[in-house]
Amino acid sequence: MSNTLMLSDDKLFYTLEGESEYIGQPSVFMRLSMCNLRCPGFASPGSPNGCDSYISWSIKNKYTFQQIWDEFFIEQGFADKLNNGAILKYTGGEPLVQQKKLYKFDTFLRIKMVERFRNIDNHGYARMRTDFETNATILPMSQWVPRATFTTSPKLTSNGDPESKTYKPEVLRWHVANFSGFKFVITSDKDIEEIWHKYVEDKEGINVPRNRIWFMPACGSREEHIERAPAVAEYAKAMGVNFSPRLHLLIWDKALKV
Ligand code: SF4
Description:
There is one protein chain. The protein is an alpha/beta fold. The protein has helices at about 65-75, 80-85, 100-115, 165, 170-175, 190-200, 220-240, 245-250, and strands at about 5-15, 25-30, 60-65, 85-90, 130-135, 150, 180-185, 215, 240-245. The radius of gyration is 18 Å and the shape is globular. The structure holds iron/sulfur cluster.
């Protein structure tokens, strides 16, 4: 297996986590290319392809592990950010599409970090915080635990892909067993009925605990966020789950490239 990864057009960047459990924390995002879903139901005049991470569908950015280390972690200073405690976020697209190569890269990166900073954990690797953003349809390899945590964003019927692709009970049960976070974009009370029916009080034995759920407003701008957040906050209070704003829209009025 070659030591390469396919990256999205925005590749790696440093920002603050914008949603759910680690909101506001300094983070180095590594956006991987490709996704196993399409999300046509998310299409809008501003996002005609549906997917709000459409730049991740690009497959022209093939990088060797060494190039990623040199160009981003050294030249752009992201290794220093991680060493200072920033979270490394593997996102996409769906980062688990490339998980075998990514695991190899993760090992490469941890060894490089140890060589540079001598910052070693109990397993002999660099002490790094790593979190995935995943659509929860691909089973993570068992080796990721305890190296990484997972923030899932399961897709509801409104995403427009067939349920056979978006709803994978065995993957969801794995995430519950491994304390992953579950964030849901809420457009109406119909979404909440679906969440309860399929994820919380469901027949598949998924039973996501309420304290591992985050409701977020469906919005594409600061103005829409301000308008829609109060209703979603009330839903969160009523159902006993967490509410998460979408920080990038509130601060920068943009969802990507900030
Ligand atoms: S799951 Fe995410 S990255 Fe994949 S198509 Fe849907 S919005 Fe885009």
